[in-house]
Model the fold of this input.
Amino acid sequence: MNKVANKIRVLIVDDHAMVRQGLRTFLELQDTSALPIEVAGEAANGLEAVTLAKQTQPDIVLLDLVMPEMDGLQATPKIMEASPRSRVIILTSFGEEDKVLPAIRAGAQGYLLKDIPPTELVQAVREAYQGKVQLHPEIAKKLMSLAAGNEKPAMSRAANPEDGLTDREQEVLQLIADGMNNRDIAAKLVISEKTVKTHVSNILAKLNLDDRTQAAIYALRHGTTDKK
Done:
């Protein structure tokens, strides 16, 4: 049974004590009419994060990528296993594709860079708590570029038998991941734009997604780039 939450509990994970203190101070100063934010704990590396996540069961984990002993990429799936209801937001200085895509595929709910304004970070925490994907604009651009590039994830019914999508919806999802808008998809599939909109709405509803960016991320996470 779900209980009504009275605060958003956040676990801060970063190997720099000053960063952790700064995040704690700012998050706990957010005294507004919105749901308050409470810092459930701090960890200096991935190993500590997994242990604390299991103990505290936080709503949100703000997770650095580059840390000693266990980095953020290694820690993400272990944190989610230890605390299944937690949503992980990567908060790092590194925006390279070779870090972004593995983090998203590992299950991160968001990927933000440390140059994000503090007020926007608070908003991201609140929206991630509501289940919304949080991406720094540059990261979103990289993901969409990657999806539309040479390494296009090949969607297949066999790879995702549980998603409930029809063959046509799988096809539309792939084209969304390729960066196409509704008009382009309609032209590609020789169907009306209205029909495309219906397919997109069905895809978002079946996969419980909010928008096209989340759909593209879903394709990246669940597709396969291996050409058999």
Observations:
- The first strand starts at residue 8 and ends at 13.
- The beta strands are 8-13, 37-43, 60-63, 87-92, 110-113, 134-135.
- The longest helix spans residues 193-207.
